[in-house]
From TrEMBL:
Protein name: UDP-glucose 4-epimerase
Origin organism lineage: Bacteria, Pseudomonadati, Bacteroidota, Cytophagia, Cytophagales
Superkingdom of origin organism: Bacteria
């Protein structure tokens, strides 16, 4: 079985469902910059433009999850779990008006898990594969 790079808690799934009902398909991006750069940001799908400086890590609850390539260099040995907590973040993420914010919980992969990692795609590879399917 492949090791997933990003997971999601049931609480975060419930928040995603609320946001999807209002905004349609969603995506996540985690940068290493300012404005809660350590928090995953939720956008309407396609609202955040990804490219070669981004990495696609997989999907959570039907949403693509991207990270900046520079941030991925630091976190490539870490399994991420998207969770949600009460409180208002300082970002442009869609959940902010709900009075909650997404956050990342992380742990290092075990040696065994590292042998079975899911592949990642850079943003341009991801876009090319998506275009092929359409």
């Amino acid at each position: 079985m492949s090791t997933l790079r990003v997971l999601v808690t049931p609480a975060a799934e419930a928040t995603i469902d609320l946001l999807r009902d209002e905004h349609g398909p969603l995506m996540f991006h985690q940068s290493g910059g300012c404005c809660d750069g350590s928090s995953p940001m939720c956008f309407a799908a396609g609202e955040f433009r990804v490219g070669g400086s981004d990495v696609w890590l997989g999907t959570i609850h039907g949403c693509d999850f991207f990270m900046s390539a520079s941030q991925f260099e630091y976190w490539q040995h870490t399994q991420l779990t998207v969770d949600v907590t009460k409180g208002r973040g300082a970002s442009f993420s869609l959940e902010i008006p709900l009075g909650v914010r997404f956050l990342i919980r992380s742990r290092l992969f075990t040696e065994e898990e590292s042998k079975h990692m899911e592949p990642v795609l850079d943003g341009e590879e991801y876009l090319a594969r998506t275009a092929e399917r359409e």
